[in-house]
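testing teh design pipeline on a random one, pls ignore if ur not involved
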């Protein structure tokens, strides 16, 4: 914490007047002599002495806590017993510590009393054997008994000798009383340029930034914090070189006020000058210049500079970015800026794993090149085995893909993406072997909105209940998304805001006959923190809600390729039911038919436990309709709960869910394990 200088002002002279007695040279000399004699008497090292200390409350919980944390007697009490001299030193040092603590809250007339004695009288009266390691506070309820046995003031020069005479079997008892007196208030606030001997008048905005006003309590932490806020406010106005010295305060005991003077130099309003790059090796400087949200001639503002730093960090090619502002202006009156980069590893290998009782295990590896051509282009190659022992699976499958992304394609915040993928899965509903390809772009609008458009193609072979079909499809997925959760990492747990997305996918299918259909889907989730009701601390207790809706227009249900129909059941819709386990089924089997409309909803309560653990309870409900209208069909409900272990990458989750009414040949329960929240 920055320091705050205090003075008592008395007419034209400045002097210090204190209520506590200060030790002079003679006192220190006597103290040292007594210590040397004490050590000589006991063979240099005195017997160790245990002690107990009590700081009586002054009626303010915050100040009481600061006093306890400040005290050497309290903070060092748990260490081994100390000799008489060391204990006396702790007591004497606490006078200044208590005085500084009270000053910091504006109680400059506080009176500090430290009394030292023993509990022998109490022992004799009650015939209680108290050993030297007991830490009970009961003894402090009988302070008069202690005083009756003889005490000494903590400021006495004879304190080491007094402590040395206390029998080893007894504890030294230390009692602290503080009379806080009146709290001083701010009498005047003055801002000066001491070098030019000028008075500075703050604007209305600057006064608002400063925050303090005449009559406020003279709390040093608030004064220093107000100074820091004003400096930040000045810098946001373009005063890049604004400086303020340590506040100097003048006490006026007659009216219990504190006048504060700040040495202040605003400096000129400046623009950003030349921007230099350092540390770039594999990343192209031209790309960074195009991407950078700063330019020469722009008004200097720390918030703008930080936003630019965060934006460059989001490219994923740097492990650290440091923005250094010069401490002087250049010849044109602008302030230079140097950006130092440390590039991250260009290639990484990761393992992907997950498990649920319905879809089984999922295990694979992913290789990623984060900067393939020097402009933050990203190439991902993945090979994943799927369907390992799942109740909705009838055998092993795979998911192999290559995914390429080029950021800022043709326009800032517009990403080009191309993906090819081979998929095989053996579900109870159908077997699928497919080759997929898509190419398109995603464009961000501001911080929270994005839109996407792709052109895709699918070539697949599907077997359903012994019937084999080949499908060739061309589709045009169009989507829009909103994310107001303000998460830097999407794997983390949201605690406020909402997310929503809508999509429409017109599709032309070529097979035995040509059909056209359009899949329309929407999803939304929102999060409410109980801290807004004053019930918990921020981020500890969260209600989360999710809704999904979908409809297919065009072809009839049974003419649709099975993988293009709508299903429910599983971790993303209705937990407790296996994947595709909600909705119409072929009679007498657990083969899902799928539908042309679907709607689901979820309510979940998430509770943090201790630091890194959490638990949750949830209820899911949903239905699938044979027609194109949602909210028709049989509603199925699943309930469950689980646990979370929070890591820097996101929470590791374990959920267990059961169906409220088990369907024909349905699973009794489902278990889901993965990284990140379900929504």
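output:
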């Amino acid at each position: 914490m920055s320091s705050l200088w205090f003075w008592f002002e008395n007419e034209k002279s400045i002097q210090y007047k204190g209520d506590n007695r200060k030790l002079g040279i003679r006192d220190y000399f006597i103290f040292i002599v007594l210590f040397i004699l004490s050590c000589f008497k006991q063979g240099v090292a005195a017997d160790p002495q245990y002690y107990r200390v009590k700081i009586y409350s002054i009626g303010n919980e915050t100040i009481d806590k600061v006093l306890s944390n400040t005290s050497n007697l309290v903070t060092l009490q748990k260490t081994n017993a100390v000799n008489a001299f060391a204990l006396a030193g702790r007591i004497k040092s606490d006078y200044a510590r208590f005085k500084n603590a009270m000053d910091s809250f504006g109680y400059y007339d506080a009176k500090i009393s430290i009394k030292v004695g023993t509990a022998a009288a109490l022992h004799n009266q009650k015939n209680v054997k108290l050993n030297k390691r007991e830490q009970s506070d009961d003894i402090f309820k009988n302070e008069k008994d202690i005083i009756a046995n003889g005490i000494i003031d903590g400021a006495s020069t004879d304190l080491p000798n007094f402590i040395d005479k206390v029998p080893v079997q007894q504890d030294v008892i230390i009692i602290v009383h503080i009379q806080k007196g009146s709290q001083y208030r701010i009498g005047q606030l003055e801002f000066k340029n001491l070098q030019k001997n000028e008075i500075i008048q703050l604007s209305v905005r600057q006064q608002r930034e400063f925050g303090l006003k005449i009559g406020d309590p003279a709390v040093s932490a608030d004064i220093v914090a107000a100074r820091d806020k004003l400096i930040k406010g000045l810098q946001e106005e373009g005063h890049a070189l604004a400086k303020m010295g340590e506040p100097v305060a003048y006490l006026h005991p007659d009216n219990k006020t504190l006048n504060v003077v700040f040495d202040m130099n605003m400096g000129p309003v400046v623009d950003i000058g030349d921007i230099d790059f350092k540390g770039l090796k594999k990343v192209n400087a031209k790309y960074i210049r195009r991407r950078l949200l700063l330019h020469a001639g722009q008004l200097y503002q720390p918030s703008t500079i930080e936003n630019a730093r965060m934006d460059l960090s989001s490219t994923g090619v740097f492990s650290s970015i440091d923005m250094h502002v010069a401490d002087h202006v250049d010849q044109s009156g602008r302030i230079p800026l140097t950006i130092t980069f440390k590039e991250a590893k260009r290639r990484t290998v990761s393992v992907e794993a997950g498990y649920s009782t319905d879809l089984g295990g999922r295990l694979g590896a992913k290789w990623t090149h984060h900067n393939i051509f020097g402009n933050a282009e990203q190439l991902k190659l993945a090979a994943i085995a799927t369907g390992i022992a799942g109740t909705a699976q009838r055998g092993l499958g795979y998911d192999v893909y290559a995914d390429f992304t080029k950021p800022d394609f043709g326009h800032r915040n517009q990403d080009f993406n191309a993906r090819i993928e081979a998929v095989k899965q053996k579900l109870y509903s159908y077997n699928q072997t497919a080759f997929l390809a898509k190419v398109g772009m995603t464009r961000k609008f501001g911080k929270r909105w994005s839109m996407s458009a792709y052109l895709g193609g699918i070539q697949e072979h599907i077997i359903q209940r012994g019937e084999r079909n080949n499908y060739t499809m061309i589709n045009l997925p169009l989507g829009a998304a909103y994310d107001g959760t303000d998460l830097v990492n999407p794997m983390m747990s949201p605690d406020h805001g909402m997310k929503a997305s809508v999509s429409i996918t017109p599709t032309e299918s070529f097979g035995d006959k040509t059909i056209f259909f359009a899949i329309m889907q929407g999803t939304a989730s929102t999060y409410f923190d109980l801290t807004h009701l004053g019930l918990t601390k921020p981020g500890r207790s969260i209600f989360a809600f999710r809704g999904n809706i979908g409809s297919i227009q065009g072809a009839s249900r049974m003419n649709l390729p099975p993988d293009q129909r709508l299903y429910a059941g599983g971790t993303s819709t209705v937990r407790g039911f296996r994947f595709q386990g909600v909705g119409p089924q072929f009679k007498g089997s657990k083969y899902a038919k799928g539908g042309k409309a679907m709607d689901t909803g979820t309510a979940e309560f998430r509770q943090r436990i201790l630091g890194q653990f959490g638990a949750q309870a949830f209820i899911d409900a949903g239905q699938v309709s044979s027609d194109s209208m949602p909210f028709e069909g049989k509603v199925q409900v699943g309930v469950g709960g689980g646990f979370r272990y929070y890591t820097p990458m996101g929470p590791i989750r374990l959920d267990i869910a059961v169906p409220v009414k088990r369907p024909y040949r349905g699973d009794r329960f489902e278990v889901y394990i993965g990284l990140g929240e379900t929504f």
